[in-house]
UniProtKB/TrEMBL annotation:
Pfam families associated with the record: FHA
Protein name (database record): Signal peptide protein
Signal peptide feature range: none
Keywords linked to the UniProt accession: Membrane, Transmembrane, Transmembrane helix
Record bears the keyword Transmembrane: yes
Keyword Nucleus: no
Alphabetized SUPFAM superfamilies for the sequence: SMAD/FHA domain
Transmembrane regions listed in the UniProt entry: 189-208
Residue ranges occupied by any FHA domain in the UniProt entry: 23-72
Length: 209
């Protein structure tokens, strides 16, 4: 379980620093986190580990130490996602990953199975009784099994006789040509009748004139 700082500004951008002990921040050669810049004091700040918690303390630096853009005057506890700043150098804080503890084992309770009910309780013979009633040959085939006979056919009924089929009548279609001839014939008779009536009318007119 180690705290980490990740640089988000300056020439160290993207680099990670593991905080596994108390560390000095500054531009002095003995500093654990060495920041070579004029704005950084020789002994700028200290990172402290207390009961696996990370704290930061400003050591009377000239340009200050900040947590989330707020300048601190005394020790300040750091949390996951905080931004700690030394002068203009900013770092993101990453807390240690939580270890997953072993889950307690769950004992499976035995399942109580109900005893099988004898079929004889339901009015049926038990398997033992049925086994003793049927004789089995050497090859395992049952013997002396009675097969029920089919119901008798009533007298006077011939199952082979076939019912007579009623003849199906088809109406002969009337020819289209025959209909047209019949219509022409009727038209001719009507025309002749009209001509005869006209002739008779002319004769009567001449006779009585």
């Amino acid at each position: 379980m180690t705290w980490k700082l990740q640089a988000i500004t300056g020439e160290f951008t993207g680099q990670e620093i593991n905080i596994d002990r108390d560390m000095l921040v500054g531009r002095h050669q003995d500093a654990d986190l060495l920041l070579q810049a004029a704005e950084i004091s020789r002994r700028h700040a200290a990172l402290l580990l207390k009961d696996q918690l990370l704290w930061v303390q400003d050591l009377n630096s000239s340009n200050g130490t900040f947590v989330n853009d707020i300048r601190i005057e005394q020790e300040q506890q750091l949390h996951e996602g905080d931004i700690v700043q030394f002068a203009s150098f900013k770092f993101s804080v990453f807390a240690p990953a939580q270890e997953i503890t072993d889950l307690p084992e769950i004992e499976a309770e035995p399942v109580n199975t109900a005893p099988s009910q004898d079929l004889s309780d339901q009015g049926m013979p038990s398997l033992t009784e049925r086994a003793t009633e049927i004789e089995v040959s050497r090859d395992g085939m049952p013997q002396n099994i009675s097969i029920p006979k089919p119901a008798p056919i009533p007298e006077g009924i011939d199952i082979k006789a076939q019912q007579p089929q009623a003849p199906v009548s088809f109406d002969e279609p009337v020819s289209r040509v025959a209909e047209e001839k019949e219509q022409q014939k009727n038209a001719s008779v009507g025309l002749i009748t009209i001509i005869i009536l006209v002739i008779l009318a002319l004769l009567a007119w001449l006779f009585f004139k």
